[in-house]
Design goal:
Blueprint (H helix, E strand, L loop, with lengths): L17 H21 L3 E2 L1 H4 L1 E7 L6 H10 L6 E5 L1 E9 L6 H18 L4 E8 L1 H29 L2 H25 L2 E2 L1 H31 L5 H33 L5 H28 L22
Parallel strand pairs: 1-6
Antiparallel strand pairs: 2-4, 2-5, 3-4
Helix pairs in contact: 1-6, 1-9, 5-6, 5-7, 6-7, 6-9, 7-8, 7-9, 8-9
Length: 315
């Protein structure tokens, strides 16, 4: 028998929960925005420029002593941060003037100092980005996210109606802000990989919302005598098997990567896991129910009215 995560006769009253969902969405968005304003993001070397070294120790080093030892080398003030586990430390330094040879000299000095005090230390990753390049990357990243949101609004406006575009963009803004708030709360490194994750989350959430919106529009034409609340509940329940199966399948793969994958993609995977959970929630509880507040009404139909239970379900 085929696996069914959602039974065929599922009939959940999502619309009844819309005010709770709206309040939770508003609270999460405001809270995430406040975190971003107060704590900010732990921007990676991609965005702030400088030299970053990922160093593996055999035992967790005392950060204060390690910072003092790196500063004694005379290569500038250092910033240290645990990365994934206590034995992995990110060391950030100002970018030295000169070419790549200057960078290698700084890395060599730090390596020599740490190998003397911490036998078995391993430099697993070294990255350097100039200030000019980092500023360009910030600008390009902001443009990428902003333009993607604009194109989503335009697409849903022309594909459906303006109110579908508004509800979709509101839900997507919530998804993006909550994801950024998570990175502000945890202070995980925010780099270009996370920008790619945010853009992927927008694409996934848009796909989810378009499927539900398309079914709502179809049912608005089919059941013009039915109350708008019943139509939205019917449409969301019809698409629920597809939504849940897609989300669970993706989460299974992403959680495996989160637990077993390399540390270099940990932030990307964490963002994707959170984005899928939040995007699925906003698709089911927020964007569809928001159509009621925007004044959507059933329209003319060319199909005879039928009982809601006879509508086709999305498997």
């Amino acid at each position: 028998m085929p696996l069914k995560l959602v039974p065929d006769n599922t009939n959940i009253g999502f619309v009844k929960l819309r005010f709770i969902a709206f309040a939770l969405t508003l609270a999460l968005t405001i809270g995430a925005g406040a975190l971003l304003a107060v704590r900010g993001l732990n921007l990676g070397v991609d965005f702030v420029g400088g030299l970053t070294m990922q160093v593996e120790f055999s035992a967790p080093p005392p950060l204060d002593a390690l910072r003092e030892r790196v500063n004694q080398v005379g290569v500038g003030d250092s910033a240290l941060q645990e990365f994934g586990k206590p034995t992995t430390i990110l060391i950030r330094l100002p970018l030295p003037e000169g070419d790549q040879a200057a960078v290698q000299r700084v890395v060599g000095k730090v390596r020599t100092a740490l190998e003397k005090d911490y036998p078995g230390v391993n430099f697993s990753r070294v990255e350097s980005v100039s200030g000019k390049v980092s500023q360009e990357l910030i600008t390009d990243g902001l443009w990428a996210v902003g333009l993607s949101m604009l194109f989503v609004a335009v697409f849903t406006w022309f594909r459906f109606e303006w109110y579908f575009g508004v509800s979709t963009v509101v839900a997507l803004v919530h998804d993006v802000v909550v994801t950024l708030g998570f990175f502000s709360l945890t202070q995980l490194e925010f780099d270009l990989n996370i920008v790619a994750a945010v853009l992927t989350i927008i694409g996934y959430s848009l796909n989810d919302k378009v499927v539900i919106d398309d079914r709502i529009r179809e049912n608005l034409r089919k059941y013009r005598q039915m109350d708008i609340r019943q139509i939205i509940d019917l449409s969301v329940n019809e698409t629920l098997p597809r939504t849940v199966m897609t989300s669970v399948t993706l989460l299974a793969a992403l959680i495996a990567l989160l637990l077993l994958g390399p540390e270099v993609i940990f932030g990307f995977t964490a963002a994707m896991v959170l984005g899928i959970v939040v995007g699925t929630y906003s698709s089911i509880f927020v964007s569809s129910s928001l159509l009621i507040s925007l004044g959507v009404k059933p329209g003319p139909t060319t199909v005879d009215d039928k009982r809601a239970s006879g509508a086709e379900r999305v498997k």
